[in-house]
Design brief:
Helix content is about 45%, strand content about 20%. It is built from 6 helices and 10 strands. The strands form 3 sheets. It has a 5-stranded antiparallel beta sheet with strand order 5-4-3-7-6. It has a 3-stranded antiparallel beta sheet with strand order 8-9-10.
Length: about 290
């Protein structure tokens, strides 16, 4: 069971979905407190009771926006799929709960005109963790298993459609301009394996005299993609990768998505969730 904690898991990303999740969760908390008052918040004689309870939801929303959107946006190296695992996700959720519970405890003391008390503080912290910590751990494990099952099935379905693709006999060459003045390099499509973004540079891995070599150019991946002629087998599969699908050797799936193994390569190329249909369509059109 503990082995699952070391498995890879999708890191939080600054996407619109997380803003919507934060808003809906805050609304749920506000309505839950309004109807059930599980912490015995004594506001029965307060004419501002509704607004004060709704503000608990606002606290939850603000904290969630900070953790689910702003921090991943500001710290992309920390919130990266490269090192993110199930245990990181669980700890991440517990930290969020701790911060929400802390601010809710402070706010509870304020609206009830109570002095700070460590006893009351740990009282609300413990109840928040009981109500939220255990369910979130269970949901994370359940979500991990569902993601693994879904992506493994996706990989299996693609492999069923895949068979060996012959190298093109026709030599297709692209002339690519870099960000350096007057620098242009030739890219033979049949030799190209993949390109990976490294800040404002890209590393291009391709065959050179039957040897795989990686060369760095001052060029963004988006610019590189724009300059490629429209072709069916050179595709963007991730925000950091463009690869030649005709160099594909194997496909596997885990909780983070699809993983592509290229011929004669140790590099495992990830496929972002939004690019999975593109990869799948390639093998449908190239049976």
């Amino acid at each position: 069971m503990l082995r699952i904690l070391t498995q890879k898991y999708p890191a939080p990303n600054p996407v619109l979905k997380n803003l919507i999740t934060a808003t809906l969760f805050g609304l749920f908390i506000a309505l839950f407190l309004l109807f059930f008052e599980p912490f015995d918040i004594n506001l029965s004689n307060n004419e501002n009771k509704v607004f004060q309870l709704l503000f608990f939801g606002c606290i939850s929303t603000i904290v969630l926006v900070l953790f689910l959107y702003i921090l991943p946006l500001l710290l992309p190296e920390v919130f990266s799929d490269k090192n993110w695992k199930v245990r990181h996700q669980m700890i991440f959720y517990l930290v969020i709960l701790f911060v929400i519970a802390t601010f809710n405890g402070i706010y509870t003391n304020y609206i009830n005109s109570l002095p700070f008390s460590w006893y009351n503080y740990w009282w609300i912290i413990s109840r928040t963790f009981v109500l939220g910590g255990i369910p979130l751990a269970f949901i994370t494990v359940l979500d991990y298993n569902q993601k693994v099952k879904f992506n493994t099935n996706q990989a299996s379905n693609i492999l069923k459609k895949k068979k060996e693709l012959l190298e093109d006999s026709k030599e297709t060459t692209h002339q690519i301009s870099t960000d350096l003045k007057n620098e242009i390099f030739s890219l033979n499509e049949n030799d190209f394996h993949y390109a990976i973004a490294v800040g404002n540079y890209i590393d291009i891995c391709s065959l050179d005299e039957n040897t795989l070599k990686k060369i760095t150019y001052r060029l963004t991946l988006s610019s590189f993609e724009t300059q490629l002629a429209v072709t069916s087998n050179l595709i963007r599969c991730h925000r950091s990768y463009i690869l030649n699908l005709k160099k594909l050797e194997n496909i596997s799936g885990n909780a983070q998505g699809l993983k592509l193994k290229l011929k004669n390569q140790t590099e495992i190329v990830p496929v972002s969730r939004k690019y999975i249909p593109i990869v799948k369509q390639f093998f449908i059109e190239n049976p």
